[in-house]
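Morning run. Coffee first, then this:
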Amino acid sequence: MQHNILATRIRNNLLEQRKRLEDYLLVLDKEHEDISIQDPDKLIEHINLEKNIINELVSFKKILGPLEIIYYGSPYKKDTDILNMKNKIDSLVDKVKVKSKENKEKLTSVMEKIKTDIKELKKKGLENKVYNNVDSKILDLIG
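And here it is:
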């Protein structure tokens, strides 16, 4: 593979990785807000988005690894832009890790509070009152 073509492929791959990491940070920021307001539907959406982004990032890594080995093993002059882009991506990865850890800790805290609240309701015998106050309607779909 020619040196310039290889450098271009690596650069394009790094640009896509950077874009997906930036998207991931946005998802994590929104997820943080939705953890605070305890919106489970939104959290499920975020988890699905995260899975897709993570799968794409893993694919980028699988492609980029062998290309970099070839590129850096070649005798040609190396493009400093690629190294700078890699450094920026490493910085974004660190930000994603920190934000993800913060969200996990916040979610754990919220879940513990909910568990404690449920235990308190049970102690007071209020859990049945909460459920009994809900009007249930049975719909006969057969006839």
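Helices lie at 3-36, 40-73, 80-124, 127-132. Good start to the day.
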